[in-house]
Every structure is written in structure tokens, then in C-alpha cells.
Amino acid sequence: MASKNQNKPPSSPSHSKYSVDDVSVDKRRRIGNTRMPPNSGTRVQSRQAFSVVNGAKIHLRPAGHLAIGSDSGVTEFTREDVEALLIEKLRIKNKFNYKEKSEQMAEYIKRLKQCIKWFQQCEGNYVTEQEKLKNLLELAEKKCNDMELLMKAKEDELNSIIMELRKNLEALQGKFSKEELNKLEALDSLAKEKDSRLAAERLNASLSEELKRSQEDNASNVQKASQDEAMKQKEALGSEVTCLRGELQQVRDDRDRQLLQVQALSAEVVKYKECTGKSIAELDSLTTKTNELESTCLSQSEQIRRLHEQLAFAEKKLKLSDISAMETRSEFEEQKTIINQLQNRLADAESKIVEGEQLRKKLHNTILELKGNIRVFCRVRPILSDDGVGTDTKVVSFPTSAEAQGRGIDLTQNGQKLSFTFDKVFMPDASQEDVFVEISQLVQSALDGYKVCIFAYGQTGSGKTYTMMGKPAPPDQKGLIPRSLEQVFETRQILQAQGWKYEMQVSMLEIYNETIRDLLAPNRSGFDASRAENAGKQYSIKHDANGNTYVSDLTIVDVHSSKEVSYLLDRAAQSRSVGKTQMNEQSSRSHFVFTLRITGFNESTDQQVQGVLNLIDLAGSERLSKSGSTGDRLKETQAINKSLSSLSDVIFALAKKEEHVPYRNSKLTYLLQPCLGGDSKTLMFVNVSPDPSSVGESLCSLRFAARVNACEIGVPRRQTNLRSLDSRLSIG
Question: Is 69 annotated as a binding residue?
Fold first, then answer.
């Protein structure tokens, strides 16, 4: 039985309805179609960015767009704006007004940075988009090639399977035809054998009848004469019957053999029919699969055709993008040159700003040293949770004008605003590091051989002790005293390479109720022990002809590292007099004086210097009506206010340039005499509380600080070429 696809010629790649080239082309087009849409938004943004750059108009948009904007909103630049920005010159009426110049330069730098930032990010976006397009094209070509190879392999495989099936079908059909012919021949032979058997049986029956008649005739006619002849005929007939029987047996054997052969052939025919049925079923299924594959190939060829069209369109767009990118690149190179020029101008401007600020500070310090004024820094502590309960009034503010910014402070009392100006004003958010940076050069002067004095003044709870001592943890909370000591010892290590060797001595005392107490005296364990010891020991203050002040019997400790001084500070803090009032949980009830005497010698230059660093934390001024002090606290408050009042009298006398200055009215003023009226570099911190309920005390503190800032003292003098040193410690 022949298959319905028996006469169908085998398919080959050369005779296929869709060639490999068509498949590859359609396949490429399909890949381009499937890969391009997700990046359509990128192409739109790219074209928009190109059009913006070609139009020489730059829009700084918020984050998320191609154009990157600033935090202050949308800023537009045109080519004229950029050129104007490049040729812009600062317009300053007074060329020595560095602050105005700095503000204009800062604004100019800000606009330059915005322009530079946009160009840099725009360049990055263009490069990223070009890389995406290249990667997309390479991916589409790779996928198209892979699909072509896969389709070609599948087509070859299907052609080989069809050819093999057709060969098997032809072989089976030939074998089946031979078996049919053998079967027909066997059936013809069987029919012939049946006919010959019937003929032999009929012949045998006729011979038997003829023999019977012959016997009867012979018996009746010539029995004896014909007996021999009958016997001969009988023998001849017997032999003939024997031959016929042998032939009949041979025919029967041949028949049986042919029957067995026919049965075997019939079984083989049945088997071949089953195999042919299976082959036909397989051929039908393969034909179905072939049809499906042909339809799939047709659809894929159509998809590949579309992909080729899309790929051509994408290549066209890519060419346009390349042309636009080249134009943008040329414009970018121009803008890059402009940016480099702007950056160079920016670097020059920043260096000039830094140099100008350094020059301003240097000139300011020189002016103050020539005038001999006491420098005054003001620091406002942050608002606490229990400040100004029940009111929203803000009593402390800071001016924003160029002249007063960073140096001015405004205090509002009863609706009236009072303005003050100092050498530096620290707002509540200023850190300990910010404060120390401003006094670091003053601390350096102690190593150079100058007398330096820094003291903190203000009401109770305004942050004096925090400014001077700070907190042990975290490290950024350390105060001026620990930071100053760290700087002194670090600078000593650096100066050793220049041949300098330093010896340092430390003493710490407090003035409690007009009594001097040694905070480093041995066998002390707190306030009670201090009171018991100092009850029997009197410390006296003495001044020599060189302007140095000594305290008799004061404990002096040689130190070699900042860790040793930190240990001594902790020891002194445990011995210092503190108490609880209604205004402060831990109020300092005494004036704390830390003194570091520095002696340096340079062997190479044979130069010797002696400097003194005095760091003082004054007790806070307070009103009895607010502190609620009674008993010992009342006596402490009266003593503190008396000593601070004496300090105010000294400042008034210095401001009026009176001949007599009442230094001896208080132990504090007598101890500070070299700092207030000598040749020392002196700095006062006035600490202010922003609490509305303390506005009266804050106003008094600011007025006092203004008077201190107006006082003129002696010009600082460096102490050098000292050949002999006193074993006692000078505090000023």
C-alpha cells in the first residue's frame, strides 16, 4: 500500500519555499521590533536633549529628567547667559570690602557650578544613551544570527528524516510486492496439484473398473490364455498405480510444503501490513509536523521581515542620532573649554577668597593687638526643653547683614531690640570644633612665648563649663581646655624636628567664697576634704616686677602628655565646688583657674621662650530671687556676685582709663590683673542663655562684654632669652 506522500519530492534548502536569507532578514526585523519599544522613552528624551542643546537653551529640571536641576528650582541658561557669565566682572564700590566681594564671588561660583553640573550630567546621559543603542543593535544582530542557524539546522534535520522515511517506504513496498507474487504462485501451484490429484483418482477408478471387466471377460472367455496377459497387465497396472501413488504422495508433500510456505508468507504479510500501518501513521504525523513547521517558518519569516524593517528604521534613527551626537559633541567640546575656563576662574576665585579671609583675620588680629583690646567671643547655647515654658517669645536673634553676620547679636526686651557686635558670635548650632578653630591660633601663641588668658563669663546655666570643659564622651563634645592641651602637645612634637625642647607644668585652683583652694593638693577626695584642708592653709597672690603672678604653696605638676593632663583635670573636677540651685542642677560655685606654663629652648638658635596659658571657668552670676539659694548656697551666691561685681568695677575703671584700678577688691580681679591690665593676649567668652525668663541677666552679660571689648590693655609682649626659671608657677 503506497503512502499519499510517496510521490512528493524531498525538500532541500535550495528548493525550500523560504530561503535562509529571507528567514534571517525577517528574523532581524522581528528582533528589532521586540527590542526597540522598551527604550522608546529613552529615544524621546535623547531627541529632546539634542534639540535643547542645539537650540543653545539649557533647562535645569528636577531630578528624574535628563536635565539636572538645582534644589532652588528651574534655572535657564542661554548662550548669551553663558558668555555673559564668562565675561562678568565683580562690581564692588569699595575694593577693600572683602565681605561684599566674597558674597558676590560666592553667588558667581554658585551659578558656575550649576552650569558645570548640568553639562557634566548631560554628557553622561548622552554617552549612556549611545551605549544603550549600540548594545541593543548588537543584541538584535546576535539573536537574528542564532535564529538563522537554528532554522537552518531544523530544516536540514526535517529533510533528512523525510528522505529516510521515503526510502524505507519504497523498500517496504518492493518487498510487499514480491511477497504478493510468491503468494499467487503458491496458490496456482496448489490449484494445479488439486487438479492432478483429481485426475489421478479418476484414472485409478477407471483402471479398477476396466480391470474388473477384464477379469470378468478373461474369466468368461479365455481364463487361462489371458491369465498371463492379465497378470502382466495387473503388474503393469500395479506398477503404474505405485508410480501414481508415489507421484500422489510427492504432490501431497509438495502441497503441505506449499501450505506451510503460504502460512509463513501470510504471517509475514500480516506483519508487513502492521509495519506499513505504523509507518503510514508515523508518516502522517511527520507530515503534520512538517506542515506545522512550514507554517511556523512562514510566520517567523514574516516576523523576520518586520524585524528587518524595524532594524532598518532603527539604523536610520541611529545615523540621525550619530549626526546629532556629533553636533552635540562639537558643542560639548566648546562648552568643555568654557567649563575649564570657568573652573580655572573658580579655583582662582576660591583661592583669593581663602587668601582674603586669612588676610582679614590676620589684619583683624593685628589691629586688636595694636589696640590692646580684650577680644570677646559670644556663644548662645541651644534652647532646652524647660526654657521659656508657656511662651513662644524669641528673645535672641542674629542679624543677616554682610557687616554684622557672624559678629552681631540682637536681644529683645519688652519689645525693644538691642544690638551688640563682638569679634565673633557663635549661634546655638555651632559645635565645639567650630569654637576651638577660632581660638587655636591664640593657643599657639603660648608656645611662641606669649601670655594667653581665655575665660568664660555668663549667668548660671548659660554653658560656660560646657564651653571650657565639655563632656568626656563622645569625643566631639570635648571643650576648649582638652582641645587646647591636645594642640599644645601635638605642636610640641612637630617643633621637636626644628630643635625645640619644651617643659610643661600644670596647676589648678579655685576661688571659693574669696578663698583660694588647691585642686591638685595631695590626699584630697572631694569638697569636704578640700574645705577641711584649706581651713588651715592660706594661699597668697604675689606679683613681681616682670608682671608675673605667683600663688604661694600651690601644687605644681610636671606633665609630658595630654593624657596626664586629662587625668589631672578629672581629679580637679572631683574636688571642685558644685551645688544644686533652681537655675542649674550642677552649678559651679567657684571660679576655676587652669594654668599651663610652657618653657622652650632651641639648642640650634640658643633661643629660650616662656609662655603661659590660663584657661578660666568663672562661676555664674545669678539673682537670689531666681536661684532660691539659702544657707551655704546663699553665702556662695553673695561671694560670686561680689567677685563678678569687682570684675565689673575693674572693667569700668579700665574703660574710663582711671589712674586707680581696684584690682585688690577681689581675689579674682587680683589674680587676673596681668590678663586685664598687662601684656597678655586675653579672650573672653560671654555665654548667653536664650531662655526668655533670663533676658535680664543676658542683657547684663552682653553689656558687660561690650565694655570688656572696648577696654584697651597693654600690647602683648613675647618673653624670650630667659636664662633662669623660677620653680614657682606664674599664672600670668
Answer: no
